[in-house]
Amino acid sequence: MHRQLNRPRRTRAVSSAMVVVALACIGATGWYASSDVAQASRKGESVLMFDDFVGPAGTSPDPRYWGHAVGGGGWGNDEAQVYTDDPANSRLDGEGNLVIEARPDGSGYTSARLVTLDRFAFQYGRAEARIKLPSGQGLHPAFWLMGTDVNRVGWPQSGEIDVIETINDASFYHSALHGPSADGTPWEVKAEGSGNMSDDFHDYWVERSPDRIAFGIDDAVTGEFSRADLAPGQEWVFDKPFSLLLNVAVGGRWPGDVGTDTTFPAAMLVDWVRVTDE
C-alpha cells in the first residue's frame, strides 16, 4: 500500500457486481453490532483480539493493542501528511468509535497511523474491522497488515496485505497482496470493484490460512489468492505473523493532490476491530 512505488504488474480483476452484493448485505447478517462482537463467534473459533473503542471522548485507544507510527511528509507514495500521536488526529469519540482524522496544518497536513506492531499479531485466522471511510480528492484511508519482521527484512520481503483501501471519492474498493520476487523487486495481485464505499459503515475482512488469503466486504468474498497463483520468481511470504494498521493518508502519487473542495477535518471512523483464529 503506502510503500509501493509502482502500480501493479499483475492483476486479478473482480467483478464490480461483487461489491454491490456486499453493500446490499448491510443490516442483514454480514456484520455484528459492536455490543455483540465480543461474544459472537462462529462455531469452533476463538477471539484473539477485540477492541470496540468504548471509552471517554478524547482518550487514546487501548495501549495494549495500539501504538502510533510517527513521522512522514513523504512516506510511501510521496504522501503529504505527517503522522502524529496527538489526540487531534486519533482518539475515541465517546460513542464507541475510534476517530482517525486528517487535518490541515499550515502548508501541510497531519494524520495518524495506528499500529499493533510489538503489541498484537496473528498468523492464521480472520481479521475484520467495521469502518466508515472518508471521501474527498487526495484522501487515502486504509486498513492493512504488515509482516512483523518488516524492521528486520524491509519491504517487500515483509509482505503486505491491504484489506481495504480507497482513494478520492471512495467510488471503488482496492484489496491487495504485495510481496517480493527472487530478485527483490515487488509484485502485487489485487481485487477491485466499484461502489460507494463511504456511504456507511461496512465490515472489511481478510481470512488467512496456509498458502491462501481471501478478502471480503460484509457477506461477500471479493478476492481470493494462493501461493499457486504466483508467477515464477514471485515469493509467497504470508505464512507468518502480521500486525494490523489503520491510517488516513493525504496526497501522493496514487490519489494525487488534495482538491479545493475536499472537506477537513477528514475522519475515518472505526466501530470495532476483531481477530479470530478461524
UniProtKB/TrEMBL annotation:
Write down the CDD domains for this protein, in alphabetical order: GH16_laminarinase_like
Q: What is this protein called?
A: Putative beta-glucanase
The molecular function GO annotations come to: hydrolase activity, hydrolyzing O-glycosyl compounds
Organism per entry: Rhodococcus wratislaviensis NBRC 100605
The UniProt family comment states: Belongs to the glycosyl hydrolase 16 family.
- Does the record carry DNA repair as a key word? no
Which keywords describe this protein according to UniProt? Membrane, Transmembrane, Transmembrane helix
Q: Which SUPFAM superfamilies match?
A: Concanavalin A-like lectins/glucanases
GO biological process terms, semicolon-separated: carbohydrate metabolic process
> Where in this chain does the record put each GH16 domain?
35-278
